[in-house]
## 1
Amino acid sequence: MIRYAAFLRGMNLGNRRITNDELRSHFTALGFGGVGTFLASGNVVFDAEAESPAEIEARIEEGLAEALGYQVPTFVRTADAVRGIVAAQPFDADVVEAAKGAPQVALLADTPDGEARQAVLELATADDRLAFGDRVLYWLPENGVSGTGLEWKRVEEMVGRTTVRTLRTLERLAAKFF
């Protein structure tokens, strides 16, 4: 068995409400073991047979769509991948400490090509620093997410679908489950 984390997009927003107990129940019904949830924003840790993250994503998306009646974009990473995301330090520590905003991590569905990566990096400013990792885009909004000038829809047009978590959320998840 391999330990994975699934990051679900759009959970507990608007009319889409689901408890962590219900979410764990759905993952157990999909055949996953050792299911745990973290916060109420669609972070699920579980054990599964060795499958590719893409195969697991498809299984979760199909199962949740059937169970919940709506699409749930899913981003699966192995425990090692989550630890790698957390360990990366794409921005200078002094810049992070001085920023009013928290470092953000956008999990990407696919690895963008070089042209898309370059186009996204050209959107970076001193107020919105950007850096790519392995299927992630790190973002440091100087004035917080609500005070940013970065057009996230434009970023997604270039890199495809994403889901965003604070780096702190990923650090805490990794510390608790991995």
## 2
Amino acid sequence: MTIKKFWLLAILLVCLVGGGLWQCSRPGNNDLGQPTISSVAFNKINQPIQPIPMQVMPDRVKVQLGEMLFHDPQLSSDNTISCASCHDLKQGGTDRLRVSIGVNGALGTINAPTVFNCRFNDSQFWDGRVETLEEQIDSPIQARTEMASTWPEVIRKLRQSSEYSSRFKAVYDDGITQDNIKDAIATFERSLITPNSRFDRFLNGDGNAITAEEKEGYRRFRTYGCVACHQGVNVGGNMFHDLGVFGDYFKDRGNITQADFGRYNVTGEERDRYVFKVPSLRNVVLTAPYFHDGSATTLKEAVQTMGKYQLGRELSDEDTTLIIRFLVTLTGKYRGEKL
């Protein structure tokens, strides 16, 4: 069975069983033939989306060190670009650019995903070429279009700092090394969770945490089959999927690049051409532009594009508005403050 046929069946299955999580309490149907939001009671059991835990327990000292490194431009060859340059925590963990800008103004080849909640992703990068955050760190530091540095150069710079030397010695017996730098940054990144969104509170039993329209948006999100790919704690990030199930997205967009090949660049398997890791929808209203190519500048455009190419459905303005209202409820809090 091909990937495309598999996901068509998966979407159909979600559509068929999705309504089972909403129980009728009195008559009333909308144009989908499903109970309206005013006539359903939410069943919290077996939801396709799970709430983010309120806290994780990383090593506090390592987190502090990793946070320093994450914001330090010394990790780049010309001391101008830090991890935070492309993953700004004040901008939803992204840079809100179509592609990021590296040293000497070099343009990247793909849209920078959010770093928030990255601990819940099954793999890293759009093509999923590495599994761990430690492995992920190698690429931006050494990539010509990003930090364009080398590990010996990064280590040399950091060892010149008495503060870094003492901080590393406090948690690592062997001090400043490549592995320890990666471990500290990855530990900080794993602390970047955004729990307690209004939708999380809804999942945890607060029926008033989201409005009737937002609940209806969630119902349509499920009924149409969006949850076939966007589910779990991160509302995505745990599977791969080809872009263009019901249409040729890349032919219609034009100007195909090497980055568009997705997983094919990793595996060399033809079945993986145009296959990407499904992105998380957590805090999605803050992370425009959308898709690996940054081609959708608004959330409305992104939702309607997904409807057309992934669901084979022309979403109405009402559908789009309601789904976006649900997506708004996925914005969480970082360190107790709303993003």
## 3
Amino acid sequence: MTDTTTDTPRIYVACLASYNAGILHGKWIDATDAEAIREEIQEMLIWSPCPGAEEWAIHDYKGFGSLRLGESEDIDRVAELGALIDEYGEAFAAYANHVGVDYATEESFQDAYCGEWDSEEAYAEDLFDELYAHDLPDHIAPYIDYGAFARDLFINDYFSVENNSGVYVFCSC
């Protein structure tokens, strides 16, 4: 298998006739356009060392973040997920993994995504300051318990997914 480094989500599609014959034959394909994926799969099958090859499977993937793909995933859904991850990055993959790929749409992601923060408490502090700081006397500010505020926010109204540099924050509303 040859793979070139890219940020675009990609799938490695293997010819099952070749695989069953003990031959590795497949192709890395950019996974953001369903029609292009289908064309590339057909091209790979045409060049199979096993005449009449028709069946294929996804044997590997890159650029899908925390999402896991099965070997017989629906190409339309793979392309949709790939395009959304290509556009929104790991945040979309984390969201889809948390809510389930069947429920992760561009619209639901845009409605829920609040951004990337160092921690849940950092998000809570920024949110509190945005909503209430202008009305809060300076002498009271040191008494605000941002940890408790974060705990309350993330019980029902928000959820977060950890990443390498902090958390992605999403509204549950």
## 4
Amino acid sequence: MNSAANDFAPDWVSPPGDTILDLMEERDWNQVELASRLGFSTKHLNRLVKGKVALTYDAALKLERVLGVPADFWMRRESKYRQHVARLEESEKFLMWVDWLDELPVKELRRVGVIEDLRFTKGNKSKLVESLLHFFGVASPDEWRECYGSMSARFRRTQENQSNNGAISSWLRLGEIAAENMETKKYNKKAFEDAVDKIRELTVLPFGEARPKIARFCLDAGVKFLLVDSIPGSHVSGVARWLNGHSPIIQLSLYGKSNDKFWFTFFHEAAHILLHSDEKKSIFLDDVDFDSGEKKEKEANVWAANLLIPKEHRIELLSLRAEGEILEFSKKVNVHPGIVVGRLQHERQIKYSSPLNRLKESLEV
């Protein structure tokens, strides 16, 4: 074998034809001579040298016999070159797709570290497009619109301002990715009803202590509980949805960041799972203000409210004003006093600016 061929270290970005030309030059052959030895037409060899036709394994074996360079070398050379060509073509597509970035919360997704932290310059936009395609797990913006843009038709919204589909779909995707790594049992409605009763008892605990127990009780019943930091513009505090029709998810953002809102939102979403499993294709988007007139939202509201503070205590609840009364009542019904304060505010019995807000616990994801 020719030692020059053994030591040859080509630029892997160039086509295999560049190596062929170098080896031809060593032997003082022209393309007519080499084509004759390979059994190719001169036209075919010329197209092969220029990278206009792919180098097949049959051609690689012939080059091995004629030029003394192993067939595997030629195939690796061809593979690297075709990969490079494909990436160049993809880069051109990415440049054509940069307008898609206007539909997405790029800054926020950079902040949470799911895409590259690149400055929003012309040179970086194609890289951001590629990074976002990886994040959403789609091949192009067209597939994103098919998988996520069209998802908006399944949204059951509680607020008119839940219209930023880019922000909402990004937040939902963060939940999907987190859910992929969670092992859970098969969903069982009775088990989840029992889990909800156990979780209700956790409302008196500090959130940091309650959080892992909520997740464990949910997983044991086949429900994935997720806390995903909010994406500005999504206006979503919680969502109940089913993945693939058999895996229910409760995803909360802590939008509002107080324990009264957290607990009401959690049980509101639990109600959707338990009461509305006939709509597994629906995605129930909820904001901290649940005054939607939609029937299923009202049902979830009533269910969550009565679970936290049973309706037989409603008259006594509405009479509460003083901090001592609230603390005594919360012990009686076994819920955190912040939940009682939040309920009284929702019932317009005390102001949202009330000093009693100090009874609430402030939360972080």
